[in-house]
Design goal:
Order of helices and strands: EEEEEEEEEEE
Oligomer: single chain
Number of helices: 0
Largest sheet: 7 strands, mixed
Helix content: under 10%
Structural class: mainly beta
Strand content: over 45%
Distance between the termini: 34 Å
Length: 116
């Protein structure tokens, strides 16, 4: 199983960035997908998740700014980030969990987002 993130980079505050995650799971449609992030010196935190049937949910600190989406046919996950703030600077990780499990089992290697 591979989850490969892309799209990270450096951006000015207020700008947009779009992250993508390519997933090699054979039954991708049975998995909840999520974006997590970890800032230096901080704990990992959930940014957003989307159910296997497409229902999104967001952490309060990104509501109204970020949009999570999935394409089951292409086996991809995306995170559109708008109105970025310096406090959004972190390593962002894509994760997957089978719909009957509560823990995320599969993780990508992460992509760095830096907002200045």
């Amino acid at each position: 199983v591979q989850l490969v993130e892309s799209g990270g980079g450096s951006v000015q505050a207020g700008g947009p960035l779009r992250l993508s995650c390519a997933v090699s799971l054979s039954s991708y449609g049975d998995y909840w997908m999520a974006w997590f992030r970890r800032a230096p010196g901080k704990e990992r935190e959930l940014v957003a998740h989307i159910s296997y049937y497409g229902l999104p949910n967001y952490a309060d600190f990104v509501k109204g700014r970020f949009t999570i989406s999935r394409d089951n046919a292409k086996k991809t996950l995306s995170l559109q980030m708008n109105s970025l703030k310096p406090e959004d600077t972190a390593m962002y990780y894509c994760a997957a969990r089978w719909y009957r499990r509560t823990d995320y089992d599969y993780w990508g290697q992460g992509t760095q987002v830096t907002v200045s």
